[in-house]
Specification:
Elements lengths: L1 H15 L2 H23 L1 H7 L11 H12 L5 H47 L2 H4 L4 H42 L1 H17 L1 H30 L1 H6 L3 H51 L4 H30 L1 H13 L19 E10 L5 E11 L3 E5 L6 H9 L6 E6 L2 E2 L5 H6 L1 E4 L8 E2 H5 L9 H10 L3 H5 L8 E2 L8 H13 L5 E5 L7 H14 L4 E6 L10 E4 L3
Parallel strand pairs: 3-10, 3-11, 6-9, 9-10
Antiparallel strand pairs: 1-2, 1-4, 4-5, 7-8
């Protein structure tokens, strides 16, 4: 029952994606199945009309075709028959080509739409949920497992196509000769039962492959996260050993999966050859089937067994991708659909008087309560320092102010207005956040400075803000200026330079509130002095909240919030 529920979930995802096109694919499959077998069987009456069958009596469809030809004056010649046959085969080939193009387009758009929807869910999720999820798993699902899910559904559709073709060939073969056809069906059924253990093995191999691929991604990410430590400690062999272990496991699983697919195919093909030989021998020895029909029967049998092989392969591929599909469905179910901030919600909320925390209580799931009925105020256009020892909730406090975390009780107010779900989007657009470790992406200086700004920012405005933070010289050192493409920013700029660039990026958002989380803790005294001087000039226009454990910064603060145990 669980298998049916699981399959139902996957096909609901498929059914939501262009259902009309899916119905068209199904209809084309039916047409292709009927026409493929019919084009072969039609040879029987056509060849009978040429008396190829040693004087066989022309009946049924052959007689109808003969009467139609006589009425229209079309001569029944080998040329006419070949022309009819070419037209039928061409029609079937064009049908198959059109369906393959439609299949490919449908599969690719399904991958694109599903990947976009999942990524939208991920980035729309709230901060507490994202904090509990694995980055590696999400990366794996979006890059590897979504296409695997599309393959899973594709092989289901191909299994349907193969089933229709097989049923069509068997039906036409039964119309020609019942006994030999039943023998073919019996052999195919026995082989399916005999080879079912390969199908069960596909499922476990698929799960092992997904787990090994996850480990490979994790080891790659681990290395880039700690690359400098790896080089300093000269521990490259440690990372290589882990990577090599996961890579070798993947190689072994890929080989075992390929063998698990290929061996049943070989057995089916050899069995098909044997059955075909027995059919030809029996038909020749006992003359149980007219020559023309016997010739067509051989053609049909030559197509039936490859369909059995294809069906076995399709089921094998479906089962090997089940683990991938489970990951995709799990991610889809974990994250709710969340609307993005609309253009109308992106206006700023000015801070004229103060930000107030009124009787706020907060605790992390399964954790101790950090705040209980806590109240504090942050005056507008001042630098407020939040001080306290590690573990007392300094970062959590600014997460609450920023709207990343929601208080269990109490509330956050701006000039007396409660920050509820309606105001939060505009409030977040009013905030600039500078963490201890600033981020940069591989790209131009301009791209990094205007990273998530929603409005176009002119170069002269960028240079003006860089001047505010004493960082314009960092652009001038490169010939291309803002267009300079840089990678690995930690090795292009010092810690102080990176923080100034990051501060410039935040200021280009024109924030009403600037949140700094230990933003100078990794800087030397001179760079810290520079940053604080910049902030002291900014406070005339921007409300600043500075989280730190460093009491040496107290002289720079206009207001202090102390957290105590």
């Amino acid at each position: 029952m669980n298998s049916f529920i699981f399959a139902g979930k996957t096909f609901r995802l498929l059914g939501k994606h262009k259902p009309r096109k899916l119905s068209l694919i199904f209809l084309l499959t039916l047409c292709m199945g009927v026409s493929s077998g019919f084009s072969i069987v039609l040879l029987i009456p056509l060849l009978q009309l040429l008396n190829i069958g040693n004087g066989e009596r022309v009946e049924g469809l052959g007689r109808i075709i003969g009467e139609l030809a006589a009425a229209t004056g079309i001569p029944i010649t080998i040329e006419t028959i070949l022309l009819i046959y070419v037209v039928l085969l061409t029609f079937t080939a064009l049908l198959q080509y059109g369906k393959s193009i439609l299949d490919a387009r449908y599969q690719q758009t399904f991958i694109n739409d599903l990947r976009r929807r999942l990524f939208r869910k991920i980035i729309g999720a709230d901060w507490p949920m994202l904090n509990t999820k694995s980055k590696t798993n999400h990366l794996q699902v979006l890059t590897k497992e979504v296409p695997n899910m599309a393959n899973y559904l594709y092989f289901y559709l191909r299994l349907l196509t193969t089933g229709i073709l097989t049923a069509s060939y068997i039906a036409w073969a039964l119309a020609v000769e019942v006994r030999f056809t039943l023998m073919i069906i019996a052999v195919g059924a026995v082989l399916f039962i005999f080879l079912r253990r390969f199908l069960f093995r596909s499922f476990s191999l698929g799960e092992g492959f997904v787990a090994s691929y996850n480990q490979l991604l994790k080891y790659i990410d681990d290395f880039w996260q700690t690359v400098k430590i790896a080089k300093v400690h000269s521990s490259e062999d440690f990372y290589y050993h882990k990577f090599n272990e996961a890579s070798t496991s993947l190689l072994d699983l890929e080989f075992r999966m390929q063998k698990n697919w290929s061996l049943p195919q070989l057995i089916y093909r050899l069995s098909g050859i044997g059955v075909l030989v027995i059919t030809v021998y029996a038909g020749y020895q006992f003359h149980q089937v007219p020559l023309t029909s016997f010739f067509i029967l051989i053609l049909l049998f030559a197509r039936i067994f490859p369909q059995f092989t294809s069906m076995n392969t399709d089921i094998n591929m479906i089962l090997s991708n089940v683990a991938s599909v489970k990951l995709v469905i799990q991610l889809d179910e974990d994250f709710p659909e969340m609307p993005f901030t609309t253009a109308g919600q992106r206006k700023h909320i000015p801070i004229e008087r103060e930000i107030s925390l009124k009787k706020v209580s907060f605790a992390y799931p399964d954790g101790e309560e950090l705040f209980r009925h806590y109240s504090a105020s942050i005056p507008a256009r001042k630098i407020t320092g939040i001080l306290g020892e590690s573990g007392l909730g300094k970062t959590t406090l600014i997460d609450l102010i920023a709207g990343l975390q929601k208080p269990g009780s109490g509330g956050i107010l701006v000039d007396g207005h409660l920050l509820d779900e309606e105001l939060l989007p505009a409030w977040k657009s009013s905030i600039g956040y500078l963490p201890q470790d600033s981020f940069f992406v591989d790209g131009t200086l301009r791209e990094n400075l205007v990273w998530d700004s929603r409005e176009e920012i002119r170069d002269d405005e960028i240079i003006r803000v860089l001047g505010q933070v004493h960082a314009e010289h960092l652009v001038n050192r490169y010939k291309k200026g803002l267009d300079e493409f840089l990678v690995n920013y930690p090795y292009c700029f010092s810690g102080g330079e990176r923080q100034r660039l990051a501060l410039a990026r935040v200021l280009l958002r024109n924030p009403q509130l600037l949140l700094l989380d230990e933003a100078t803790s990794s800087l030397d005294a001179d760079n810290e002095q520079t940053i604080m001087e910049v902030l002291s000039r900014l406070k005339e226009k921007v409300t600043i909240v500075f989280v730190t454990h460093r009491t040496a910064l107290l002289p720079w603060f206009d207001h202090v919030v102390r957290l105590k145990s």
